[in-house]
Design brief:
The chain has one helix and four strands; from the N terminus they run E-E-E-E-H. By secondary structure, the protein is α+β, with helices and mostly antiparallel strands. It has one domain.
Length: 61
C-alpha cells in the first residue's frame, strides 16, 4: 500500500514539542509506523495483535 493512501496521524506517544514525532496509520490488517520528519523514507508495518502487545508493554514502562 502506498504511504499517500494511508490516513496518517501523530501518535499520542510523540512529544508535545514536535521534535520526536511518530506517525501511525491503522488499516484492517496492520498498523503502519513512520518518522514524521522523514515521510519519504520507508516505514514499517506490524500486525494489529503485535501493535496491541507493544502498547500494553509501553503502558507498563
Amino acid at each position: 500500500m502506498s504511504t499517500s493512501r494511508l490516513n496518517w496521524f501523530k501518535s499520542s506517544y510523540s512529544t508535545a514539542q514536535g521534535d520526536n514525532c511518530v506517525e501511525v496509520a491503522v488499516t484492517e490488517q496492520a498498523v503502519h509506523v513512520r518518522d514524521s520528519k522523514d515521510v519519504a523514507r520507508p516505514y514499517f508495518a506490524v500486525g494489529r495483535e503485535g501493535w496491541d502487545r507493544f502498547l500494553r508493554f509501553a503502558a507498563r514502562s
